[in-house]
Write a structure and sequence with these properties.
alpha+beta, four-stranded antiparallel sheet, 4 strands
């Protein structure tokens, strides 16, 4: 199963390297938009959220959504990004 992970990091100028490392550690992943990742993970979404929450501030926002095979993209790289999506979603 694949999950879309998106976040709003509210602290201006703050670096969140721990969050990025935690997302990358969940499994095969693609960082497809500025604050959007898609990760191949067995889930559930609540487990993913609990692994990422320690890297967020109290006012940050996070959403984790299970993906389906019904997806489309615009202006994504066909060789890297779209190929990844076809393989894992």
């Amino acid at each position: 199963m694949s999950y879309l992970i998106s976040y709003d990091l509210k602290q201006p100028g703050r670096d969140y390297p721990g969050l990025q490392t935690a997302i990358e550690g969940l499994g095969p992943h693609i960082h497809c938009l500025e604050s959007v990742w898609i990760v191949a993970h067995l889930g559930p979404s609540t487990l993913i959220e609990s692994k990422l929450r320690p890297f967020l501030d109290a006012n940050d926002k996070l959403i984790v959504v299970a993906m389906s095979k019904d997806w489309t993209t615009y202006n994504f790289n066909q060789i890297t990004e779209v190929s990844w999506l076809r393989q894992y979603v």
